[in-house]
Design goal:
4 helices; alpha/beta; about 80 residues; 3 strands; globular
């Protein structure tokens, strides 16, 4: 979408019209942004690194979480 390099705050604003959930590995995002004011749910993946091998086991829990997430929610999914 050409959004590489856009800061988290600006990225959330760009995402709101077309997305319901933002999945990130940025564990500090909830402390850096006013997420309650956002009209999007946030899923924070907590893992030792962002490799596919590390994140893939979290997929089923992410699917379960996004099924019930509401705008402004921040849900952490960990290994």
């Amino acid at each position: 979408m050409g959004w590489a390099g856009i800061s988290n705050g600006a990225l959330l604003i760009l995402m709101e019209p077309g997305f319901d959930v933002f999945i990130t590995i940025d564990g500090n995002m909830e402390y850096q942004q006013n997420l309650i004011a956002q009209n999007i749910g946030i899923v924070v993946l907590q893992a030792p690194d962002n490799s596919l091998e590390t994140l893939q086991p979290l997929a089923l829990e992410v699917l379960r979480v996004i099924d019930g997430i509401s705008p402004g929610d921040v849900v952490k999914v960990s290994c």
